[in-house]
Amino acid sequence: MQHKHELPTITGEQFVGYPSNNGGPQDTGSQGKRMSTSEPPEDPPIAQSPHARSPIAQSPISGGESESAPPVRVFLAEGIEEAVDIVDERSLPVKFWRWVCSGIEWLFGLASVIAGLALLASIPIAQFLSLGYLLEVSGRITRTGKLREGFIGVRPAARLGSILLGTWLMLWPIRFVSSYWRSAHLIDPNSGVTTAWRIGLLIFTAVMIGHILLAWSCGGKIRYFFWPLLAPLFFGMWVLRRVVSSDRLRPIVGPVVGTFSKRLLKDLTTVPPLTSWFPPAIFWANLRRGGLYANSRDVVWEYAANLKLHYFFWLGLRGFAGAIAWLFVPVMMIMAMTNLQLENQQAAQGLGGLTAFLGSALLAIVVLYLPFLQAHFAAENRFVAMFEIGAVRRKFQRAPVAFWFSLLITLGFSLPLYLLKIETIPRETVWLPSVVFVIFIFPSRMIAGWALARSEKREEPRFFLFRWGARLGTLPLVAIYAFIAFFTQFLSWNGSYSLFEQHAFLTPVPFLGL
Which phi and psi angles does 59 have, rounded to 5°? Predict the structure, then answer.
């Protein structure tokens, strides 16, 4: 007697997205497993014609038996990612020129960042923005391990710097004409020359304001402010390209230049549109397109939102509070030497000297950890991280030489800046020496983040000779810093209160004494 073989079936568990028997969602964790034929599930209802026959009945089975199909395994298809290489079709001279322009723009952006930080550091409350930016520099380098990530917002700062610099330069001609009108007005207020200078000043001011607004609407690049002076050169190059790409000269120039470089031939014969470099054409194209005001408003709003001023302010405020919490006790102990008053003058001097010595020793210990605690806090963005000494000590063991070098740069760059605190600085000129402060403090923050990033790349502590050598090497650094910081109270304009103006750890500019 022949046994009827049971047809193999594929359960709903073998199909992605196929409903299970109980109507619930499919568990995709069973994909890739072999099917089970012991308990076949019910087939899903399929709409068929009443006269349609079953496919089993239609398929002939020799000998009255159905051949059992092999087990079916279902696998998920793997996504195919194609790497597309973008080939730069520009010629070598054009590439070199673009690299030079890009490098100049980057350097101008870095100078704009430094100038902006110096300006913010000289304004009360806004100093926290400058401190927050510097803390973010060290925090971002700690997270990524790349020094180039510490140059935050250099390209956007270049655009803002070009707008401010170009606008400031365009106001000088107005001041020049205004000086002539004022001189004529002082000599004879009712003369015709004075009236002519007055009318000319009004017309010239209106023209220059329109010129400034035109440069703003085109993007604010520095060349847009000087386009009347650069227009002959740009138009000459534009006309030359049109002539070279003409039907008469192209057959002559093509074989000559194409023999050396086909890419150079393409660059010479490609004529850029006027809307890509000529400000009046750019403005007219934007005006015809419509929505000039709405687009300008949206661009300005997006630029302001990307500055993340609230983030830098909050980061700087917390970093300032954490540094004050660490410096408060040692600084107050040092200040007790000159501010302690007792009936017995000798006892007051002796007790004040002892507290000052202990405060200086405690300041040396704080300085040993505070730069790295601030970088650790900026990387973690947690205020509690400012007090995690154990985490910093473990990181020191994995990169002791880097920590020592970072401490050397941080303390070494901060000591010469105490010379700028001998005389009081007028509020109108505070931003000038603050540039020097930012230039010295910026690399210190970068190297502190680099030291912590070096420790993240290793899992095991370094050899004990490196660890103990770095520990012993940090002792003279912090001792010299505490010694010099102790005597700065006798040189600074603010006296003993200047001990709270620790520019290496607090706001970059110590003149306002936050």
Answer: -85, 120
The 10s digit of each residue's pLDDT in 438-488 is 999 999 999 999 999 999 888 888 988 999 999 999 999 999 999 998 888
What gap in Å lies between CA 122 and CA 145, rounded to an integer? 31
CA atoms within 13 A of residue 458's CA, in its CB half-sphere: 16
Say what the pLDDT of residue 339 is: 64
Q: Is the pLDDT of residue 220 over 80?
A: yes
**Whole-number Å distance between alpha carbons of 334 and 82:** 66
In this structure, the number of other CB atoms found within 10 A of the CB of residue 44 comes to: 9
Residue 145 CA to residue 150 CA, distance in Å, equals 10
Residue 502's closest CA among 373, 318, 327, 313?
A: 327
Q: For residue 72, count CB atoms less than 10 angstroms from its CB and return exposed for 0-12, middle for 13-18, buried for 19 or more.
A: exposed
Residue 104 corresponds to which amino acid? I
From CA 133, how far away is CA 110, in angstroms rounded? 13
DSSP per-residue codes, 367-421: HHHHHHHHHHHHHHT-GGGGG-HHHHHHHHHHSHHHHHHHHHHHHHHHSGGGGGG
Cβ contact 184:197 at 8 Å: yes
State the burial class of residue 298 (Cβ atoms within 10 Å of its Cβ: 0-12, 13-18, 19+): exposed
DSSP class of residue 25?
-
* pLDDT for the residue 46: 44
Share of the chain above pLDDT 70, in %: 79
Helix axes 464-487, 345-380, angle to 10 degrees: 130
Higher pLDDT, 337 or 103: 103
Question: Which parts of 245-278 fold into alpha helices (H)?
Answer: 250-260, 262-269
**With contact defined as beta carbons under 8 Å apart, do 417 and 108 qualify?**
no
Token reading at 375:
């970088």
Q: In 10 A of CB 320, how many CB atoms?
A: 20
Residue 253, exposed/middle/buried by CB under 10 A (0-12, 13-18, 19+)?
A: middle
Least confidently predicted of 23-27, 91-95, 291-295, 403-407 = 23-27
Q: Which residue has the higher pLDDT, 354 or 161?
A: 161
Residue pair 426/445 in contact (Cβ under 8 Å)? The answer is: no
Could you tell me how far CA 464 lies from the centroid of its own chain? 37
Q: What mean pLDDT value characterizes the chain?
A: 81
